[in-house]
Design goal:
The protein is α+β, with helices and mostly antiparallel strands. The protein is 37% helix and 20% strand. The protein has three helices and four strands; from the N terminus they run βββααβα. Strand 2 (13-19) and strand 3 (27-28) form a beta hairpin. Helix 1 packs across helix 2. The radius of gyration is 13 Å and the shape is globular.
Length: 107
């Protein structure tokens, strides 16, 4: 199972993608391959950096198949904005459930 792990220190904010069962090597979630260079942010004061995290995490989860920017905005507002400031973990199941819930709300 894929896990998204966010850590914030005084100097940096990082998001690592890891496997709970060792299916793949850990890798940093990238902002650049999604066309949104910059750093990640989360929590209620995430601003543009929270949008970047929403796009990057959804693109990674959907294997680049992200097409609906409205989904990103709702994902940012409901899930990314609620993440704790210093440390958090989201499973791929958490991301999938959020996508499903948001799709049901609009459909």
């Amino acid at each position: 199972m894929k896990l998204y792990v966010g850590v914030r220190t005084e100097l940096d904010r990082r998001v690592l993608v890891t496997s709970s069962k060792g299916e793949f090597a850990d890798y940093p979630l990238s902002t650049e391959r999604n066309g949104h260079p910059g750093s990640f942010g989360w929590g209620s004061g995430g601003g543009k950096a929270a949008w970047i995290l929403a796009v990057a995490s959804l693109s990674d989860h959907l294997a680049g198949g992200l097409r609906e920017m409205g989904l990103c905005r709702r994902f940012e507002e409901t899930l990314i904005a609620a993440l704790p400031v210093n440390f958090w973990v989201l499973s791929e199941g958490d991301v999938a459930a959020a996508i499903e819930r948001l799709a049901a709300e609009t459909g």
